[in-house]
Amino acid sequence: MSGRIGSRAREWIWAQPGQARVAVLAAVVTLAAAAGAFVTLRPDDAPSGRVRHDRGVVSAPGDVDGDPAADAEDGPADQGSDPSDPGSSAGPSGTVPADPGAPGTTGTAPGPGTSGTRPTGGSTTTAGGHDPSTTTGPGQGSAQTPGKATTTTGPGEAGPAPSPATAAPEGPGWRLLPKAPIGGRAGQNAVWTGREMVMWGGWGDESNPLTDGAAFDPVARTWRKLPGAPLSPRFGARAFWTGSEMVVFGGTSDDGGDPLADGAVWNPASNGWRPLPASPLGVRDGAVVAWAGDRLVVWGGTTVLPDGAPDDAVTEMPNDGSAWVAATNSWVPVAAAPIPGRSDAESVWTGSRLVITGGLRADEDGDRNDGVALDPLSGAWSAIAPRPAPGSCGGVIPCAGVWTGTVGLFLGSSLAYNPAGDRWSAVAPFPAAQGLVTNEATVWTGGRLLVWGSSPDDPDAAATGDGSSVPPSGHAYDPSGNVWQSFPAGPLGGRDDHTAVWTGQDMLVWGGSADETGLADGAAFRPE
Questions:
Q1: Which residues, in sequence order, are CB contacts of 279 under 8 Å at separation 6+?
Q2: Mutual orientation of helices 2-14 and 17-34 as an angle, nearest 10°?
């Protein structure tokens, strides 16, 4: 019992890590300023990084060959449908319709505030045309042609919906997945490869992080095990599908929550791992970690003092970064951005630009509302319009946005950004007590955002993500109409820290925890 109480206490303390760090660091800065020096506190006694770096779960399709014809079979949306009995294991005609998936084109999207011309060299341009009073819906505005994004699942980014795997015809609704060859767990990473849902890591019943995983083929309905990765056990690592392999990076250690900056790559053909080369940045706490087309970008964050650092050593918040390029298995520098460095910023990959927004600084009171967009190929930065309200991510607030092909959805902030018009708009409140999408698993279908999970009615429980005892619910968001509607919740019980991926036809949900117990069940939901 004491272990469960302690775990919940840690979850509460770290549910909003950015604001907690700012409060502590601001106090230290004030004292240090009186002595004429700037010193930043290093949290040597930081608790476990499990919840501190839980960024939420967002499924992002990987770089699979788009099949517009196959995607179009799903048919148009029907906003007039009614939800059925949430306890049913098969969804009737009231389930949410799936929209045609975005074709897997490789067109170039215009940058923020530009006419579509990619910036060259290392120049920085300022986006124009911003109107703070704009209230258009998230789905409105000139559509971009998304690139063939090789982004992944939660916590991760979203991009164009992948083409569905070829399978025997199945009706709409829910069906249970076969038993997995691994034990129950929560907080695992999950990516969709175009053929398999691959899961790695997470933690088991004793909250100890794991380094193995499994892959599920929904066509054959078979599992296979992944060997242990050449990484130390950790919480909160990020995983991305590169188009041919899964890369895992970062996270926090299980013995104090220290940030980590190493990674490994898993190859599905050999079912083997290899380590990533060492990052030239060293450790950056709260850095943006995102997949950007053909590379893993790490930007910003707070430098971490090594053990044995001098007493007068200080941490910094650089505004530069580095990128691991999959094709060359090497790191390349990312130039300094035209905004101050920060930690806990939100980001989304648009297919041609990595948009970074918000975040917080230790020497400032409160979150930021400015942002930038990076062209990873040219290395050029461009400023974007400030968001309507400052914000940061971390805890139960996802750091990874969802790209719809037209707008980036930042669900934890209830905001949408349209890079073609360089403008922000509000996302309709999520139909739950907190009004935000937090710990629920989320997938982008190509036309709708499906959100499945527990939605606590108690705001205190919502703030900590404690929804394991609450029956799950399913909701779909239509960006074009800026509206939510429900769909059947299915056969699974309430849970936290589960994952979901979109296959092109189905949302696959698996794992999570209930009452501190790792779950090993899962189900597939197919919209009409």
A1: 261, 262, 263, 298, 322, 324, 331
A2: 70
- Higher-confidence residue of 364 and 1: namely 364
Is the pLDDT assigned to residue 45 strictly greater than 60? no
As a whole number of angstroms, the distance between CA 173 and CA 183 comes to 26
Q: CA 259 to CA 24: how far, in whole Å? A: 18
The reported pLDDT for the residue numbered 18 is: 45
For 208-218, what is the mean pLDDT?
Answer: 96
CA–CA separation, 351 and 374 (whole Å):
11
Nearest to 66 by CA among 107, 101, 94: 101
Q: What share of the chain is helix, strand, coil (3-state, %, to 5)?
A: 10, 30, 60
* Integer Cα distance of 230 and 424 in angstroms: 42
Q: Are 178 and 223 in contact (CB under 8 A)?
A: yes
**Please, are residues 501 and 151 in contact by the beta-carbon 8 Å criterion?**
no
Residue 152 and residue 247: Cα distance in Å, rounded? Answer: 10
pTM above 0.85, yes or no: no
Asked if residues 262 and 284 have their Cβ atoms less than 8 Å apart, the reply is no
Element (H, E) at 246: strand 246-249
Residue type, 414: S
Instruction: Round to whole Å and give the CA distance between 208 and 224.
Output: 22
Q: Considering only CA atoms, which of 200, 65, 76, 78 is closest in space to residue 483? A: 78
Please report the pLDDT score of residue 258 as a whole number: 94
